[in-house]
């Protein structure tokens, strides 16, 4: 309780107690009634039970004491109720859900409500968001402030038997698709330049001709025609640092039966990264947005040369916003006001990287400044 409120409570309590204990001058009527009863008692006109005073002055004294007790108890109780009414979040556990900090996570930015999971294709770009990014609230001013955190944003559909695979096998394949997305786009080691061994060694099928070997080769020696950013999100620690521990994630996973009893899984997710210059004294914050659309397939080992439980990659498209164009060193390079690799200048009409209703593909040049494919270097309306 604040000091000024407590001091006011103590003063009010002391005043009420003094008032309740102060002697009071009886009224004229009370004096007259008392004198009449005294005379009746002297003449022996009152019964003995009256002299025992079961409900007379003794009862009055008890009532007075009870009033004093309730004064001491009631005033702080009423005060506590008033304080809780003004700020319900003071109650342990915040039973009324009024603590906006719990919605935001940390920092002092405006409260926002999280978006429900994406269960169907979005039909329009999200609206504008208030605020500007800071080190404490790096996603302020972005629709990503309402996205889920990391793996929590990858919500899998309920599994069911498909083709040659049981419900349990389908559930295992869906979990593998989530492991791939997290390992390639959320895992902190991958983001800081480590080799994503979980993806390469535990999820992707090594029997898929050349693909896993190609990815390893791209990571070792990136270049224009073999850029690991086509599949992995990575940043140069000498240039930038990650702000906080959160990657904002939004998207959906679907599946269906494929050719010859196969299971086809389609994933479409947007990942938003908050970055700051590597200089620890810099307060500048930038965001890079990466959207990935990938088609995965679980083949029936009875019909194909395939590893049970491992996924083959059928198609993969990427859309990168706010990263330098024409730089093929295997890292994303956010455009910072303080400088850094800039590459080719963006061109063409600006598009919204948060618009998940828009299709992406290799032939559209990408939605953003990234140029991991062979398309043109596009411009964006916001980051």
Task: Please give a structural write-up.
By secondary structure, the chain is α+β, with helices and mostly antiparallel strands. It has two domains: 3-90, no CATH class; 145-380, no CATH class. The protein is 30% helix and 15% strand. It has nine helices and eight strands. It has helices spanning 3-21, 28-42, 48-52, 57-86, 100-104, 167-185, 188-191, 197-203, 211-220; strands at residues 148-149, 240-242, 248-257, 263-277, 286-298, 312-321, 350-351, 379-380. The strands form two sheets. Strands 1, 2, 3, 4, 5 and 6 form a six-stranded antiparallel beta sheet that branches. The chain has a two-stranded parallel sheet with strand order 7-8. A hairpin with an 8-residue loop joins strand 4 and strand 5 (286-298). It is elongated, with a radius of gyration of 36 Å. The two termini are 43 Å apart. Residues 50-55, 96-109, 362-368 and 370-375 have low confidence and may be disordered.
Short description:
By secondary structure, this protein is an alpha+beta fold. Helix content is 30%, strand content 15%. Strands 1, 2, 3, 4, 5 and 6 form a six-stranded antiparallel sheet that branches. Strands 7-8 form a two-stranded parallel ribbon.
Quaternary status: single chain
* SSE sequence, one letter per element: HHHHHEHHHHEEEEEEE
Tell me how many strands there are: 8
Report the sheet-strand fraction: 5-15%
Average pLDDT rating: 82
Low-confidence stretches: 50-55, 96-109, 362-368, 370-375
Distance between the termini: 43 Å
Main β sheet profile = 6 strands, antiparallel
Shape: elongated
Supply Rg.
36 Å
Quickly give the structural class. Answer: alpha+beta
Number of helices: 9
How many domain regions? 2
Helix content bin:
25-40%
Keywords: Membrane, Transmembrane, Transmembrane helix
Region (Disordered): 106-134, 338-383
Biased composition (Low complexity): 114-134
Biased composition (Gly residues): 367-376
């Amino acid at each position: 309780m604040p000091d000024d409120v407590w001091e006011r409570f103590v003063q009010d309590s002391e005043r009420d107690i003094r008032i309740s204990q102060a002697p009071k001058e009886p009224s004229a009527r009370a004096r007259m009634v008392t004198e009449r009863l005294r005379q009746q008692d002297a003449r022996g006109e009152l019964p003995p039970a009256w002299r025992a005073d079961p409900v007379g002055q003794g009862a009055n004294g008890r009532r007075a004491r009870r009033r004093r007790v309730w004064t001491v108890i009631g005033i702080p109780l009423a005060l506590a109720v008033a304080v809780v009414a003004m700020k319900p979040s003071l109650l342990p556990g915040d039973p009324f859900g009024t603590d906006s900090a719990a919605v935001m996570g940390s920092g002092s930015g405006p409260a926002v409500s999280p978006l429900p999971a994406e269960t169907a294709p979005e039909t329009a770009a999200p609206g504008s968001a208030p605020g500007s990014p800071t080190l404490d609230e790096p996603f302020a001013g972005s629709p990503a402030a309402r996205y889920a955190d990391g793996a929590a944003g990858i919500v899998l559909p309920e599994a069911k038997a498909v083709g040659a695979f049981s419900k349990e096998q389908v559930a295992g394949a869906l979990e593998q698709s989530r492991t791939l997305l997290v390992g390639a786009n959320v895992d902190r080691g991958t983001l800081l330049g480590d080799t994503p061994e979980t993806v390469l060694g535990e999820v992707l099928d090594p029997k898929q001709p050349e693909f896993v070997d190609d990815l390893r080769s791209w990571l070792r020696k990136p270049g224009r025609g073999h850029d690991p950013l086509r599949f992995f999100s990575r940043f140069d620690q000498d240039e930038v640092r990650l702000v906080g521990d959160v990657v904002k994630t939004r998207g959906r996973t679907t599946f269906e039966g494929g050719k010859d009893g196969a299971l086809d899984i389609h994933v479409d997710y947007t990942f938003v990264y908050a970055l700051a210059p590597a200089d620890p004294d810099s307060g500048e914050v930038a965001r890079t947005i990466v959207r990935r659309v990938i088609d995965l397939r679980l083949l029936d080992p009875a019909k194909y040369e395939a590893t049970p439980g491992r996924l083959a990659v059928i198609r993969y498209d990427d859309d990168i916003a706010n990263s330098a164009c024409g730089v093929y060193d295997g890292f994303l390079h956010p455009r910072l006001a303080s400088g850094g690799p800039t590459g080719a200048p963006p061109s063409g009409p600006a598009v919204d990287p948060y618009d998940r209703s828009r299709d992406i593909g290799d032939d559209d040049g990408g939605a953003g400044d990234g140029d991991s494919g062979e398309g043109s270097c596009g411009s964006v309306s916001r980051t």
